[in-house]
User: What shape does this take?
Amino acid sequence: MDLKLIIFDCDGVLVDTEAVFNQTLVDDLKVHGLTLTLEQCMGLFMGGTISSAKPLIEELGAVLPETWVEDFYEKVYEQLRHSAEPVFGIKDVLDKIDATGIPYCVASNGRVKKMGITLTRAGMLDRFKDVMFSAQELGTAKPAPDLFLFAARAFGVSPENCVVIEDSLTGVLAARHADMRCYGYSPHNDGAELAAEGAILFDAMDKLPALLGL
Assistant: This one.
């Protein structure tokens, strides 16, 4: 494979935010009449967007105000400003990629503002500030392939020359729909759900450079 672009997801791949984000959601939903465990919350909503999650949350019994999406984002931004950390080993991976000259970017269902907050806190904004692609801005989210295809076009690269680094089912599906090779980061479980959709699994970031052939 002639690798010309590496596309990273943000949450859970570059920045360790999933637990903080979902615990904030658990705490917030309890106030609005819906009690979920952290595991239930992550199983239901990981990899999606808050806007798309709102109808299901209401179907499950929460009573949400019209301003809830924006209110929640402001609440979670405040938490992430103080708690987001880089995924263990990711900076060494980026250093190795930098040494090859292969370009990389981040493509997330999250907002650009959220990526800016978390990547700043994790000390990686300088690496990604000009190459952040958001489904919220594009208007179509994973598992649709549009976000990854948009990123590839921005670099003038064909899908077959891209790889995607993901940790969620929605991201893996988006990569498959875009005809891009996908590596599924699964440090906490066997990753069977990701592998079933064609992801090549790895459980530690220090294994990624060899998988990419760097």
Q: What stands out?
A: The longest helix spans residues 68-83. The chain has a mean pLDDT of 93.
